[in-house]
Amino acid sequence: MKLLTVAGDKGLLENISYIVLLALMFLLPIFISPFGLLSFAFAKVFLTVFAVVVAFSLFILLILKKGSITFPKSWAMLTLAAVPLVTLVSALVGGSIQTSLIGYGIELDTFFSVLILFVLLFLVMQVFTSAKKIFYAYIAFALAMLILFVFHGVRFLAGPEFLSFDLFPLITSNTFGKWNDLAILSGLVVILSALMLETTRVAKRMKLVAYGVFALALVHLAIVNFFLVWVVLGVLALISFVYLFSFGKGEETKRKIPTLSIIVLALSVLFIISGQQISNTIASLLDISVIDVRPLWSSTFEIAQQTFSGVVTTLFGSGPNTFVYQWAQFKPDIVNQTLLWNTDFNYGISYLATTLVTVGVVGALAWIAFLVFFVYQGFMSLFSRKESQNSFLAYLTLSSFVASLFLWTVLLFYVPGIVVIILTFFFTGLFLSTLSVSGILPQKEISFIKSPKVGFAITLSLVFILIAGISLGYLSFQKTLSSVYYQQGLLALNRDGDVVTAGQKISQAVSLAEHDVYYRTLVDLNLFQLNQILSTEDLSTNASVSRAQQTLGLAVGNAQAAINSNPLNYQNHATLAGVYAAVAPLNVEGALQGARSAYQNAIERAPKNPALPLALARLEANQGDMNAAREWINRSLGIKNNYTEAIFTLAQIEVSEGNIEEAIASVEITTLIEPNNATLYFQLGLLYYNDDQFGNAATSFENAITLVPEYANAKYFLGLTYYELNRRSDAINQFLALEETNPGNEEIEFILGNLQAGLPPFDEVQPPFDDEPENREELPLDEEGL
Is the dihedral of CA 310, 315, 318, 323 positive or negative? Predict the structure, then answer.
């Protein structure tokens, strides 16, 4: 194949920049951290930041060496700077500057990430200065995808245990992010390979490889079966068919039928219409189970509307990387009646739609301006092809535009993983590069060596930019290293039970990056150590009291540090409240008031979370103020009327005060009014169970399970009730069902073993379990959606 080349060599610096970015294109989909020291997200982000910082530094040095810089001769190119600039302003006027500027280091909607992404786009546009270089980027991406196709294909056939490396336990485990991202990446391969085969002449061997990759991509598309990708591919295939049939010509100037576009269009229509049946069959054969949930469009716009409460938030939003906190404040009430009531979403319905909330109207306009510029240039390139233009360069222009358009459309309607977002900017940079190479986007060289004053000012500015870029790279390295220490601390805690080592590692993580999640983990360790002191040491000695006070002080300090790190996160305030609540029964001075105040602060930031007023209710109940406890429980049930935990606590309060008969009568009347409310039947069953009316309790629990078959706690107490009614076999059946839905639950296995051995359920029970689950502070089983 004959490729265009650029005359002359611009030197070692440009070649290294090109190699670094080319390596990024190849490694990005497949790179993982060795030994699992980093999460996939951190590994991808660090790889990208490293490549961008190195390439950018070399690019600045190249400019200084040449004494000039070349830019596309278009004012519209300023839209590339508009989005990062508005994002920076939004971060500075938002509620948490640290969260919005850089966050944990892996979020792709902070100012730092947006800046890196647009710098990557700019660098690709500047470095890939020939058709040959651009095509090598395609080859690098194709090789990476071929590796992924082989990897997943082998695992589909051999099972998830094969090539798991202790990192890929499920059939859907991968090196790139979400399972749906495999469909997006496969769609990208389909676009690049189909357009190459239909618009260019290639050698026979390359044509066979292209057909093979095209087929493999379609197979993986069918296996994942992501509806959005089929829709977008179908539309693009239709447009490509019309365009290629109208403007493309085959041999001897005869029109050529774009067969591959027809195939992609036909498959897209097939999977759009019948994809669910096909997907169910494939999922059953390969044991694929994936849940991917997001807020709706209506929910995203509702959050945006609630966010725009003032001039600043209307113009610049709540700040980059803060959608999750707006969700906690303003999520629709209907969400609390679903399984997602306790889910905090970091994004809205899509990556781009989220920016309406986080960077406001001005930010949204900046994004629209950039995308309008991109689409305009794309369509101009389709209809302004010069007769003398190389056909291969025309393919690169067409394919890079269609590929970028495909990716931006995905970002408009979905929240993909890190790899897809980074590739979106990379391919957009490749497209703009083809415009420069083909002359569609004229270039202008600006020299600053002719005037000493101008040269000095520009050189000083470039050196400053170089230092800033290197500093950002070092900051990213610190964030990455802190994540390594944090992961090591969690490993020491969860695998080895080594609290001391865990504390040391997490403290090292904090010394590099003061993230609230690190501080919250330290609080958990502090409370564990405090409980050990209180339960094992003689508190009549000064030494033990001093250790307890010191540990409590550390817990309070770490919780306060979490709040200082990110005051927007309600979890930080709830953590501080939990520390005070843990020692409130010991009559520690100020603990009760501190817990109340911290819970109130948490509720202000997450008023739609029913767990927070319930926590306050339990705090008041432990202090003996049952009236205040009831008020907070009623508030919790007002937020989520089927909240099982609140019902459980309310039943305990009624039992403790001897109000069982009145409570039973009240709940019975309520069930007549709301006969389809499973939570009410569960509450009624608990009251009957506590009053030893096991026959009525069994009926109530059975009614709850009839309405909600997966009601785990209702099954748990129904099994205990059956035992009390001498229906041992029925009790065993309930716990067998629970064992299937709660694999590995030690308490269920313990009870089931006793029942099957003919023993009482809690025979010889040992801590942390007890034989009075109805009197525990929390329900025996975690309940999703209830």
Answer: positive
Place of tokens 């082989």: 150
Residues near 482 by beta carbon (within 8 Å), at least 6 away in sequence: 508, 509, 510, 511, 512, 513, 515, 518
Contact 397, 435 (CB under 8 A): yes
- Report yes or no: 680 and 708 within 8 Å, Cβ to Cβ: no
Of 118, 98, 239, 106, nearest to 177 (Cα)? Answer: 106
The full DSSP string for 648-678 is: HHHHHHHHHTT-HHHHHHHHHHHHHH-TT-H
pLDDT tens digits along 680-691: 899 999 999 999
Q: Would you say the C-alpha torsion 179, 181, 186, 190 has a positive or negative sign?
A: positive
Q: Are 275 and 226 in contact (CB under 8 A)?
A: no
The total number of residues shown for the chain amounts to 786
Between CA 759 and CA 402 the distance in angstroms is 69
Distance (Å, rounded) from C-alpha 420 to C-alpha 408?
Answer: 10
pLDDT digits (tens, 9 = 90+) for 325-382: 999 999 999 999 888 888 899 999 999 999 999 999 999 999 999 999 999 999 888 8
Q: If we measure between CA atoms, which residue out of 575, 570, 562, 564 comes closest to residue 330?
A: 570
d(Cα 527, Cα 487) in Å, to the nearest integer?
A: 20
- Residue 442's CB: how many other CB atoms inside 10 A? 10
> Residue 71 belongs to what H/E stretch?
strand 68-72
Q: Is the preceding omega at residue 567 within 30 degrees of 0, hence cis?
A: no
- Which is more confident, 468 or 351? 351
For 352, the 3-state DSSP assignment is helix
Rounded to whole angstroms, how far apart are CA atoms 395 and 225? 28
- How many Cβ atoms sit within 10 Å of the Cβ of residue 78? 12
Closest C-alpha to 303, from 328, 278, 281, 331: 331
The three-state secondary structure class of 446 is strand
Tell me the CB-side half-sphere exposure of residue 587, using CA atoms within 13 A.
Answer: 0
Alpha-carbon gap, residue 58 to 50, rounded angstroms: 12
Dihedral of the alpha carbons of 30, 34, 38, 44, in degrees to the nearest 10: -30
Query: pLDDT for 381-408, tens place per residue?
Result: 887 765 445 778 889 999 999 999 999 9
Number of helices followed by number of strands (H, E) in the chain: 32, 2
DSSP letters along 337-348, please? GSTTTTPPPSS-
Share of the chain above pLDDT 70, in %: 96
Segment of 156-160, 635-639, 652-656 carrying the highest mean pLDDT: 635-639
* 144 three-class SS: helix
Return d(Cα 400, Cα 194) in angstroms, integer.
Answer: 12
Both tokens of residue 118? 């647009």
